[in-house]
Amino acid sequence: MVRRFIVALLALAAGTSDALSADITLRFGTINAKTTRAFTEQLMPLKAAIEEGSKGRVEVQLGGLGDFGTPVQLLGLLEKGDLEMISTVQGYHPGRFPLSAVMEMPLLYENAEQGTYAMWKLYEEGLIAKDYAEFKVLSLYVLPPYGIFTTNTDIASLRDLRGLRVRSPSVAVGLAMSRLGMIPLGIPNNAIGATLNDSLIDSISYGWDSGATTPGAGGKMLIEQVKYLVDARFAAPSLMVLMKQKTFDALPADIQKVIDGATGLDFSVRSARMRDGWDNQTRDRLKGQGSHKVIALSADQRAEMARRTAPVIDEWTESVTRDGIDGRKIIERARELIRQSPKA
């Protein structure tokens, strides 16, 4: 505020018409630590695009993990008006985004770009739009299908997963993991390191690059707290960048246009493509450096995983249908869009 006041005084003294140029502040809360590439290479450029597109009239105050609240608090802070923008995970809010959980079904897509294209189209076509009735959706995307990383358990077969206490990113992913005999626990990413350090969990369902760049406990990154890395490509959470619709509608029309131009399908797909690349790079690096054991699943193991987790898809479909929405239509359209995606 002081800086903007001084700038305004200088501009007035110079007789310019831009005296109060930076007069809109958008507080942007995120779940990403500032050490992650998601923060520095995805969200920082979004902040810059909005500020530059507004010609300095908008200041985006981008906060990292914990700066504006814990991951599970961000949605509530947005709804109360304490934040203007958030980037968070739908799965941190059980029951709030039931239709979007279709993109968290096990073994649905091979890479984040496929899944993201499908998710945005499902929203655009109105099939999952009910989840976001009160919001201005700036981005919807999914992460690359997660690995399963264990602290002390080598995984030679799916049987070895039984009984492992696993951090799950969402209820939908957790239900699928329970079908493999695992014990899913909902732990937001700011608490994963501590629960691993205290041996409260044995494994995590997490992204490769995020694991290598998110701080854990004892000065380590999360990936340094685990040893056995199963390249499961199982399932991953969906994410969203939101504003309240009323907040967006109150902005000047030209600022709305700037925000629309910086977000949407292009931003979402670009974000997913970057995430795919980062995960591939990190997986390859960890394979080569010898500090971890990277475990690939055979085609037979993946087929068995699909067979055992299939009831989760049926249960989701039935639950949505009980609420008066054609769940079968949504899952079938999701699969069709995945096949149609440019990355397919």
Short description:
By secondary structure, the protein is an alpha/beta fold. It contains twelve helices and eleven strands.
Count of distinct structural domains: 2
CATH architecture descriptor name of the largest domain: 3-Layer(aba) Sandwich
- Unreliable residue runs: 1-20
Secondary-structure element series: HEHEHEHEEEHEHEHEEHHHEHH
Q: How much strand content do the residues show?
A: 15-25%
Question: Largest sheet, order of strands side by side?
Answer: 7-6-8-5-9-11
Outline the structure in words:
This protein is of the alpha/beta class. The protein folds into two domains: 2-94 and 129-140 and 238-277, D-Maltodextrin-Binding Protein, domain 2 (3-Layer(aba) Sandwich); 147-236 and 289-340, Bacterial extracellular solute-binding protein, family 7 (D-Maltodextrin-Binding Protein, domain 2), CATH 3.40.190. 43% of the residues lie in helices and 17% in strands. A six-stranded mixed beta sheet has the order 7-6-8-5-9-11, with helices on both faces. A five-stranded mixed beta sheet has the order 2-1-3-10-4, with helices on both faces. β1 (24-30), α2 and β2 (58-63) form a beta-alpha-beta unit. α5 crosses α11. It starts with a helix and ends with a helix.
Keywords for this structure?
D-Maltodextrin-Binding Protein, domain 2, disordered N terminus, 6-stranded mixed beta sheet, 344 residues, 5-stranded mixed beta sheet, alpha/beta
Secondary-structure topology with pairs:
Elements: H1 2-14, E1 24-30, H2 37-53, E2 58-63, H3 74-80, E3 85-89, H4 112-124, E4 135-142, E5 147-150, E6 165-168, H5 171-178, E7 183-186, H6 192-197, E8 203-206, H7 208-213, E9 228-231, E10 238-244, H8 245-249, H9 253-262, H10 264-289, E11 293-296, H11 299-322, H12 327-340
Parallel strand pairs: 1-2, 1-3, 6-7, 6-8, 9-11
Antiparallel strand pairs: 3-10, 4-10, 5-8, 5-9
